[in-house]
Amino acid sequence: MTLNSLESDAMRPDVAIVGAGLAGRLLAWRLARDGLRVALFERGDPHGRAAAAWVAAAMLAPLAEAAVAEPLLVALGEASLGRWPRWLAELPAPVYFQRNGTLVVWHAADQADATLFQRRVMANAPASMRDGRIATLDGAGLARVEPALGGRFQQGWLLDGEGQLDNRQLLAALDLALAAHGVPIHAGVAVDADNWPDAGLTIDCRGLGARPSLPGLRGIRGEVVRVAAPGIGLQRPVRLLHPRYPIYIAPKQQDRYVIGATEIESDDDSPVSVRSALELLSAAFSVHPGFGEARILELNSQCRPTLADQRPAIVFDAAAYAPGGAGAGTGRERAPRFAVNGLYRHGFMIAPEVVNEAATLARVLLDHPRDACAGFAAWHAATPWPELASGVRFPAASGDADRHPDAARRSGASAPAAVDHSSPTDRFPCRS
Ligand SMILES: Cc1cc2nc3c(=O)[nH]c(=O)nc-3n(C[C@H](O)[C@H](O)[C@H](O)COP(=O)(O)OP(=O)(O)OC[C@H]3O[C@@H](n4cnc5c(N)ncnc54)[C@H](O)[C@@H]3O)c2cc1C
């Protein structure tokens, strides 16, 4: 099917979603299960192999990530952890999901990294999240919790309740769910400003492919190794703190492990470098010598879609829909559009909350076909995550939204914090 063949009203979807990676696929499913007519467009294959989501380790570890992520991300991750099991239970095929916690270990010489990790977690994760969930382990405790590492490390932390899932099982289960709801995936179709699909609402979930529309969007290259290592038996993701080669090892089903990941400021999605492969595998070998006999199943790389402030964003250019704005006119050219992007290294960790908000916004915009700005303002006033709003140039009357109580509460400010939507440079402008 071509984009043009959607032009008859009978076939016009309520929502067209561009990009069938993590955000696009989840969002299409959530909207389709509400009875909306959804079409999904993907420039790669229909299974998601072109997406960052295909390569990811899919750890759901807001406490461990607090060492590198600000409180907003940590809070989104914590809320999403609660939502994932409910969503997975609705899918027509099982998806491997566990909440066995994260184990953090380090070699004695790297104590300074452990101290830094601890300080950052304390700073970015609220006490309510930390209390009772961080167990300090000595060698014996570590051997009890994770027998495979007994005798190998003399100290560690167990971060209770952290999770992970199987990314590829999730993408496949979403395929089935979409098919069951009659959502077509138009694969092999690269969509850009010249061939934007016609629909009541369009949602840009192109990840890094949205660079032409979202100035400031960049890639952060990540490389991983997938191995089969029977006999090691790790029961949960393990993070090795190291000044030069920090890694994680995420055990999946059937003795498969994802070892990752490099973090390189680059849009380069070429194959894994020899250096990265050596570093990742050497570090894994230092965690457990059994990885020396592992079989390499795959070396893979992808770039994480990252915004300047490394936050996720729901990007809506309200000014384009204001009277006299760029979207002014009649008929279909006024159909609203927004983008979901900037999921960076936390896409799986935060997707349920971000996608839930995007789905809510989509429904509200469809309910306000003649005034997208009013729709957006209504969503923004009600969302528990107003910080997600980005690229917004609100015409007047948005002052109330600028002092959103949920954002103020999370920022810990005694006076309400201002979310400045006044400037088109607020985070970055949305262009189409
Ligand atoms: C090595 C690595 C490890 C990671 N590990 C984790 C982890 O452990 N936990 C975690 O939470 N997150 C992790 N992530 C991050 C996570 O994978 C991303 O945040 C997430 O996949 C981003 O979702 P997205 O839908 O925005 O982009 P993507 O998943 O990349 O999907 C975008 C889709 O849009 C398509 N597209 C692009 N341009 C066009 C176009 N013009 N027309 C049509 N389609 C287009 C692409 O082909 C792609 O399928 C990891 C990422 C990497 C690379």
UniProtKB/TrEMBL annotation:
InterPro entries named in the record: FAD-dep_OxRdtase, FAD/NAD-bd_sf
Note whether Cell inner membrane occurs among the keywords. Answer: no
Q: Which domain of life is it from?
A: Bacteria
* Composition bias type Basic and acidic residues, residue spans: 400-409
Q: What positions does the domain FAD dependent oxidoreductase occupy?
A: 14-352
Instruction: Please provide the record's keywords in A-Z order.
Output: Oxidoreductase
Q: Where is this region: Disordered?
A: 396-432
The identity of this protein, by name, is FAD-dependent oxidoreductase
Tell me what organism the protein belongs to.
Robbsia betulipollinis
Q: Upper taxonomic classification of the species?
A: Bacteria, Pseudomonadati, Pseudomonadota, Betaproteobacteria, Burkholderiales
